[in-house]
Amino acid sequence: MTRPVRIGAFRVERLLGTGSFATVWLGYDPALRDRVAIKVLAENWSHDLRVRERFLDEARLLRRLDHDRLVRVHAVGELPDGRPYAVLAWADGGSLRDRLAGGPLPVGRALAVLDEIAAGVAVLHRHRVVHRDLTPGNVLFHGGPGGERVLIADLGLAKALASASGLTVRAGTPGYMAPEQEDPLAVVDTSADVFGLGRLGWRLLGTGGAAAGDRRPGGARLRAGVPPGVDAVLRTATAVRPADRYPDATAFRRALRRAVDGGPPVDRAGRIPHPRGFVPAVGLGVVLAVAGLAAGDAARPGAAGTVGRSGPLTVVLPAGWRAEGTGWAGQYGDDGELEPALVMSPDPRAWATDPTLPGAFVGLSAGTARRTGPVGFLTERPHADCAAAPVRRTRQGGVEWVVVAFTCPAGRPVIVEAAATGPAGLLYVQLVPPPGGGADFVDLVLAGVRAG
Predict the structure, then answer these.
(1) CATH node for 96-261
(2) 6-89 maps to which CATH number?
(3) Is the alpha carbon torsion for 445, 447, 451, 452 positive or negative?
(4) What are the residues whose beta carbons fall under 8 Å from the beta carbon of 86, sequence distance 6 or more?
(5) Which of 130, 218, 377, 432 stands the most exposed, by the fewest C-beta atoms within 10 Å?
(6) What is the model's pLDDT at position 284?
């Protein structure tokens, strides 16, 4: 394949990849002084009007949605030979397929990536669009000042719900494609993407024991460290009958978060069949193992200054709070043991399910510190429905903390995320302050966190 020198106004640097329908080049935009990805329709399809229109439909759809969880389109054009091309934002972090080729992701990171994929697909579903081809190759990573983001790409097969049924073209990748997509007369709705999310979940979190084409990997097992409730979520997502799955990506994501956070299971609609309801307190990967507490791992409520401990991790408790915890589920140290973590609150065991309770999750991870820094770690823990305040930095307890406060429309009105790099690893705090507890209260809690 001959590399073109220029495509439109863009200088071509190198080939990024080829597919059945298109070739993607890395280009340079001299006006904006930035790199872009240029997707060009393959020559052998240039005269097929259906394929040509599908190619342009993808660019139009991405341009219309213009969301930071999807690959953005800057422009479209046409080569001298008549082939269309689209100028896209360059995902400089490569694809999930590339990452998995180097081995499995750590469990905590894999859960966070699956959550981010579901969030991107949920954007499509809110606009009544079905992706229909969710695969590791269509999940991209892009770095930025706030850390790495997960992007959903390749919407060439995507269909609006109004036209996604009745004589639709068979579309999808074996192993990730929902069973009904093989039937040209079947209704293909958002539950088809849920199947793809479930299959991606098995690929990210499974032991690899099931064949890639298995629809329901009955023999597959989840890796050590995956919270047990995730198994049921993935099996529901990959049910053969669409009606037995979660209806859309939002319901799937809600069920996944409940399973990871250790909350009660949800039904297929993503609702919790529980009269009290449940509002998740902590982000993906932040799961506290509280069973079998050893003496000294729990602190009784008392005056301010009481200390809670989990291994080398200690926290100074606000008055009336106590701490419980033995380890950070899903986070393992070099010795194979759970890394230290605890929950502190007036009632730690009720904190995850009672949105009226203030409290905090505090964890220490040496392994995470080797993978990412405070900013990157916090970027993996978004609160999609909440408004984020500007990032601030504060030096407390001898370390530099990165702090982001979120104001939320439902559940807990304020959630504060904070991370720092200490001598023993990455320190992480997720805090729900009491009413009226502002930045001073946050800094007081951070000042009491120690490791070592």
Answers:
(1) 1.10.510.10
(2) 3.30.200.20
(3) negative
(4) 38, 39, 55, 58, 59, 73, 75, 76
(5) 218
(6) 38
